[in-house]
Amino acid sequence: MTSTAAMEAGSASVKRLLAAAAATMEKARYCWAMTVAEDGSVNARPMGPQKSLASEDPFGILFLTRRGSRKALEIGRTGRLSVVYQHDADDCYVTLIGRGVIIADRALLRARWQPAWNQFFPAGADDETSIFVQLEADRIELWVRGVTPEPFGTRGAILERGQGQPWRLVQG
C-alpha cells in the first residue's frame, strides 16, 4: 500500500471511529466527569453534558457547575478533565480526555441557559456562582461493537490530536 493509500485508509478509519464515538455520546443520557484530587486519587461524578451546537467541536463538552465546587477547584488546579460515556444497549463506551477550562462568561451562560437549571441556581443565568467547565478533548478511547478491533473488548481504539490538528489513529 502506498503512503497516500495508507493515509486515505487511515482517514476513513478515523472518520468511522469519530462517527461511532459521536453516536455513542449522543445516545448516552449522562456521562461521568473525572478529575484528579490533590492526593492523586480520582473523583468521578455523573453529569448532564450540554450538547454542542452543530458548528462546534462535538468533542468539546460543556458542563454547568458551581464556581467553588470540587470539580471546578480540581480542574483549576490540574487543567485536566476526563469524561466517560457508556451506552449499554449498544455495548459501547467512549472516554474523552483533555484540557479542562473554567468559563465564567455571563453572555455564554445566558445564551446556553436551560430552565431546568433554575432548581440548582435560583437566580438563573445571573447567578454569579454558576460557571461552565469545558472539556477540550485531545484523546478519545472507545469500544464500539462492530467498529473497534475484534475480538471485541480486548483492546479499544485510541485517537489523538494536537492543538489545532486533525484526529489521528494511534491504536486500533
UniProtKB/TrEMBL annotation:
InterPro entries for this protein: Split_barrel_FMN-bd (IPR012349), Stress-Dev_Protein (IPR052917), YdaG_split_barrel_FMN-bd (IPR038725)
Give the SUPFAM superfamilies listed for this entry.
Answer: FMN-binding split barrel
Domain General stress protein FMN-binding split barrel, by residue range, is: 25-144
PANTHER family to which the protein is assigned, alphabetical: PROTEIN BLI-3
What's the name of the protein? General stress protein 26
What lineage does UniProt assign to this protein's organism? Answer: Bacteria, Pseudomonadati, Pseudomonadota, Alphaproteobacteria, Hyphomicrobiales
